[in-house]
Design a protein that fits this description.
This protein is of the alpha/beta class. Helices cover 45% and strands 14% of the residues. Helix 5 runs parallel beside helix 6 and helix 10 packs parallel to helix 13. Bound molecules: nicotinamide-adenine-dinucleotide.
Amino acid sequence: MNIAVIGTGYVGLVTGGCLAQLGMNVTCMDIDKEKIEKLKSGIIPIYEPGLEEIITENLRTERLIFTTSIEEAVAKAKVIFIAVGTPPNEDDSADLKYVYQAARDIAEHMEDYKVIVDKSTVPIGTGHLVKKEIESILQKRNKGFAFDVVSNPEFLREGTAVKDFLKPERIVIGAESEASLNLMKKVYDVQIQLDIPIVETNIETAEMIKYAANAFLAVKISYINEIANMCDLCNADISVVSKAMGLDSRIGPKFLSPGPGYGGSCFPKDTKALIKIGKDLGYLPKIIESTVDVNDNQPMIMVEKIKSIMGSLADKTITILGIAFKPETDDIREAPAINIMKSLLEGGAKIKAFDPEAMENTKKIHPDLDIQYCEDIYSACQNSDCIVLVTEWKDFLSLNFIELKSIVRTPTFVDLRNAYMPSSVENLGFLYKGVGRK
Ligand code: NAD
């Protein structure tokens, strides 16, 4: 099977690499020349566990090819995935210019039947608009090729993306023809053999599933954050509350850990886009609106927590452990650490920060942030007045508090991920503050 993937970001690169790993011939195309040059020589522009090995192996066997030529990508492929970004517009709607551009580029170069698969997260109805764009270009070219548009939203999580792609919990295929559905089932044959559920539906339903799933997870996070914020104001402990809630099989234990709020390239933009979709349909999705409000406020509640312990921030040194929006990624898009650091800096604090993978991105995207980037945990904690654990990287889960006590100025530990037992940190001489915890 010959496949093309348009866009080599977090989703496109994982999709291309994994499909090659499953035995398909994949051409990955991007308009970013620098990225493609790097990829051709085996340099992976993002941090994603397991991806480098897959890309290296499949480059070697030539099952995976990188190019900036849309013509080359389209020529050989029967199935073409669009995996370009859909960032937010000013009015919170998804900006579809990259999706439509990719669709037009495909239409300009196709010479036979193609299945064009929308993997990007796009508003309900986009698949049909993509179809119209392609039709109008084919008309202008005076070509009558048949083609199908399919919606196949992606549910991978950064940090475990390779595993999630190869062994997802479900595969959603929104298709309008038997031919395109059957081709998609061939693409996912290995997963089908593994009995992974396939949800076959129409294009609009597939598009809605992606937004509905992301918004639901965001609701769960904002919900538990609200409960934790209330626990902070009374004699209740969120860790026990979450555990007991999670034991109810109707609720389940996942996504019940409070923290500084959700971030990343998906939940923030997808929740806001879904509100806009609802409003455009004449319906106000109030639960999702509240979810966004709670999340927008959560980093500031964390800052207030830090201030309440430290009093004035002026000339205090605060250590930030973890900048990425979650562990095992270098992605800092909408990471709560960014707003927390901005606010602490505004309050007059000095910031020392360490993140195993996300510091380069932070320097590049936020050159204005006056942060001292450190080489490791212990240099970041040297002479610190307060250590704040923001992202629960594995390395931060076994801190040596005895050593830390000997190098900090004031032994204060703010655990925004509730990664430690309060008493175990307190017994080692630290003032401990978690989220909603006694
Ligand atoms: P990204 O920003 O990391 O990558 C997008 C890539 O598309 C960039 O490399 C860009 O240069 C390229 N591109 C833009 N226009 C192009 C064009 N016309 N032709 C070729 N390449 C083009 O984005 P991402 O994080 O991979 O997300 C892609 C889509 O997948 C989004 O809709 C996102 O919401 C969705 N999604 C993302 C995740 C995630 O965890 N990142 C998970 C599921 C779904």
